[in-house]
Amino acid sequence: MKTWNLASSAALLLASFPVMANPFPDADLKAAHENHEKMCIACHARKYGGEGGSDIYTRVDRRVSSPSALSQQLTACTTMLNLDLFPEDENNLAGYLNKHFYKFK
Q: Which positions make up the signal peptide (predicted)?
C-alpha cells in the first residue's frame, strides 16, 4: 500500500486549481501601444483626465470589470467613434490595456 506524504498531497491540490492565464495571449502590445496613442488618448484625456487619459481605466466607477467586458467596450468604442480597427486590433488593445491597467487573469 502506498502512503501519501505532505508533498504528494500538496502537488495534487495545486494541480486541481485552474491555471491563471493571460486572457489576451496573442495580443501584439507594440501595435496596440501605437493605436492607443493615435486613437484613444486624446478622447480619454478630454473626457476623463489623467496622464494620457488613463483615469478612464482606473476610476472607481469604471464599466470594465472582466476580460469580456473589456473586449465589449473596445468594440463599442470602435463602433460609436467609427474607428478603423479590425477585431485583431481590438484584441491587441485589450491585451495592452489589460497589461498596463486592468490586470485580469
A: 1-21
The vertex-66 CA angle with 65 and 69, nearest 5°, equals 90
Q: What is the pTM of this model?
A: 0.78
DSSP 2-64: PPP-HHHHHHHHHHTSPP---S-TT--HHHHHHHIIIIIHHHHHHHH-SGGGTHHHH-TT-S-
| Tens-digit pLDDT profile for residues 85-104 | 999 999 999 999 999 999 99
The Cα 77–Cα 73 span in angstroms is: 6
